[in-house]
């Protein structure tokens, strides 16, 4: 989609559709909506008076002006209550309007930048949220459908209109960031929605290599033989039961020397059957998305490289299947991880922490200023936080509070759980240094505690996205059924406001 910011007054743009907005409870609109209302001889305020337009968040009303304004259609979108207004409401309203415009079969539209006037949001932030909400709400995953019931004509062009020329450069910057970030999140949704027979570890490595080629990143793929010679016994134990060879994908973006190094580690089980500790068959298909952490790392690398962020980013993605077979790791097996620590594998379904253990140890080789990992790690995190909030566990208060702030702003909210050392008791093994499971209590915490044993001295945060990587019931227009693309908006917000570790 082509996105531009143009200076002018809303009522004079000759477009297929013009989007203006309204706060709930406002009876005589001001700003651009007021100007359009006047040009339409008060039709908008008349509809408000009649109770037909109420300004509820995401409410969409289409008007067909007969003269007065240059646009063929005027679309009034509700912003909700002014006291509840923020970036999230902008994404929601923009998404509702964009979906309506697409359902009308239109291929271009213009919109005022919600929130940048009476809403009191900085023009750059408002434009970013507007573009994010629009692009993500138009996301579809139809590549495997040979028959489409309602064919969709994609929207090709979106124009952001601003009267005040002084705000235009900021809006252009925000719109560009919003576009890159949303398109990267859509890229992640595609990766996660793709089934496991197509996205094998080798195929994922191929995608990473293609992305690296396109964006000028370094990409190194460690093969099974490399893992064997290095001693990545934990990662190898998970892949044993599968016919697909494991891959450790290392993507590097380094635009300059001397930049802070951030390691992003992403769990990439291209399929998690549970292994010998086989999962129940209900919902097992969703385990094609057990590589959502790795996909998010790829999405962040993509967005950061396109926007030329001043970091040395290292993306580390251990990719494998977890399958039962005659060769598979068995409950009770003991393996030696890259760190040298031995692990008793009591449950082969707790495999994410095993592949991450070796990947986190490997991350230490880059002497990072911070390590953040993303993983669909535990069902326990879904029990604790549902599908609304990502779990955050960290050994570093500063890093944790930066991620919390980024969660608020990006709309990808996180909630911190404790990592008190007493939880470590649950991971004691009678026969090895550590056991890979800690029993039912505090399952999200003991999983993170396990990871912490492989991080070394670096500031580290873990994001458990088991509840947030997927949605069956989208609650907002910019969400779609299936993969959410979680992580890209959150980590891009964190990096763009980075204040050091
Ligand atoms: N990939 C799963 C966690 C998961 C569950 C992700 C639901 C998304 C939705 C992980 O590998 C797993 O199976 N974890 C086990 C750990 C347990 C055996 C200690 C779990 O959470 O049940
Ligand atoms: Zn599992
Ligand atoms: Zn898993």
Write the layout of secondary structure elements.
Blueprint: E1 2-7, E2 18-23, H1 31-39, H2 43-49, E3 60-63, E4 74-80, H3 87-103, E5 108-112, H4 123-137, E6 157-162, H5 168-193, H6 201-215, E7 218-222, H7 224-230, H8 233-239, E8 247-253, E9 261-266, E10 268-272, H9 292-306, E11 312-322, E12 333-336, E13 342-345, H10 352-363, E14 370-375, H11 379-385, E15 390-394, H12 397-410, E16 414-416, E17 434-435, H13 443-452, E18 460-464, E19 470-471, E20 482-483, H14 488-496
Which key phrases capture this entry?
501 residues, Aminopeptidase, nine-stranded mixed beta sheet, 14 helices, elongated, binds ligand BES, binds zinc ion
Report on this model:
This protein is of the alpha/beta class and 501 residues long. The chain has 2 domains: 2-165, Leucine Aminopeptidase, subunit E, domain 1; 184-496, Zn peptidases (Aminopeptidase, 3-Layer(aba) Sandwich), CATH 3.40.630.10. Helix content is 34%, strand content 20%. It has 14 helices and 20 strands. It has helices spanning 31-39, 43-49, 87-103, 123-137, 168-193, 201-215, 224-230, 233-239, 292-306, 352-363, 379-385, 397-410, 443-452, 488-496; strands at residues 2-7, 18-23, 60-63, 74-80, 108-112, 157-162, 218-222, 247-253, 261-266, 268-272, 312-322, 333-336, 342-345, 370-375, 390-394, 414-416, 434-435, 460-464, 470-471, 482-483. The strands form 4 sheets. Strands 7, 8, 9, 10, 11, 14, 15, 16 and 18 form a 9-stranded mixed sheet that branches. β10 (268-272), α9 (292-306) and β11 (312-322) form a beta-alpha-beta unit. α3 packs across α4, α4 packs parallel to α5 and α12 packs across α14. The protein is elongated. It starts with a strand and ends in a 5-residue tail after the last helix. The mean pLDDT is 97. Ligand BES binds at residues 272, 290, 347, 349-352, 376-380, 382, 437, 443, 466.
């Amino acid at each position: 989609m082509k996105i531009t910011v143009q200076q002018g007054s809303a009522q004079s743009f000759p477009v297929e559709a013009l989007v203006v907005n309204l706060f709930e409870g406002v009876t005589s609109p001001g700003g651009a909506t007021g100007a359009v209302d006047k040009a339409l001889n008060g039709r908008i305020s008349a509809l408000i008076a009649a109770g037909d337009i109420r300004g509820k968040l995401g409410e969409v009303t289409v008007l067909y002006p007969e003269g007065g304004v240059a646009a063929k259609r005027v679309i009034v979108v509700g912003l909700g209550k002014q006291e509840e207004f923020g970036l999230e409401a902008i994404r929601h309203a923009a998404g509702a309007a964009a979906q309506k415009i697409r359902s009308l079969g239109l291929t271009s539209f213009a919109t005022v930048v919600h929130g940048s006037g009476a809403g009191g949001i900085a023009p750059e932030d408002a434009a970013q949220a507007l573009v994010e909400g629009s692009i993500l709400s138009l996301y579809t995953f139809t590549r495997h459908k040979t028959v489409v019931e309602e064919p969709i004509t994609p929207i090709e062009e979106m124009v952001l209109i601003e009267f005040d020329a002084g705000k235009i450069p900021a809006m252009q910057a925000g719109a560009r960031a919003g576009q890159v970030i949303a398109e990267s999140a859509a890229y992640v949704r595609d990766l996660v929605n793709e089934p496991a027979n197509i996205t094998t570890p080798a195929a994922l490595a191929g995608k990473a290599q293609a992305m690296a080629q396109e964006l000028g990143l370094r990409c190194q793929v460690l093969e099974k033989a490399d893992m064997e010679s290095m001693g990545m016994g934990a990662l190898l134990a998970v892949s044993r039961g599968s016919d697909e060879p494991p891959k450790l994908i290392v993507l590097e973006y380094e635009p300059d020397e001397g930049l802070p190094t951030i390691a992003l580690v992403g769990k990439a089980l291209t399929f998690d059957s549970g292994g010998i500790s086989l999962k129940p068959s209900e919902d097992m298909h969703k385990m094609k998305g057990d590589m959502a952490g790795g996909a998010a790392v790829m999405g962040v690398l993509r967005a950061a490289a396109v926007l030329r962020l001043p970091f040395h980013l290292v993306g580390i993605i251990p990719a494998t299947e977890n399958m039962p077979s005659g060769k598979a790791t068995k409950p009770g097996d003991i393996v030696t991880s890259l760190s040298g620590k031995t692990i008793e594998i009591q449950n082969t379904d707790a495999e994410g922490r095993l592949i991450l253990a070796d990947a986190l140890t490997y991350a230490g080789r880059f002497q990072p200023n911070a390590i953040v990992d993303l993983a669909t790690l535990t069902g326990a995190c879904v029990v604790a936080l549902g599908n609304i909030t990502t779990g955050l566990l960290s050994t570093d208060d500063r890093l944790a509070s930066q991620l919390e702030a980024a969660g608020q702003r990006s709309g990808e909210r996180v909630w911190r759980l404790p990592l008190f050392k007493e939880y470590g008791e649950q991971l004691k093994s009678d026969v090895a240094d550590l056991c890979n499971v800690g029993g039912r209590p505090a399952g999200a915490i003991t999983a993170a505690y396990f990871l912490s044993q492989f991080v070394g001295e670096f500031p580290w945060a873990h994001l458990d996205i088991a509840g947030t990587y997927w949605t069956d019931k989208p609650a907002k227009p910019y969400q779609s059924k299936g993969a959410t693309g979680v992580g890209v908006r959150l980590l891009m917000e964190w990096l763009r406001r980075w204040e050091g570790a």
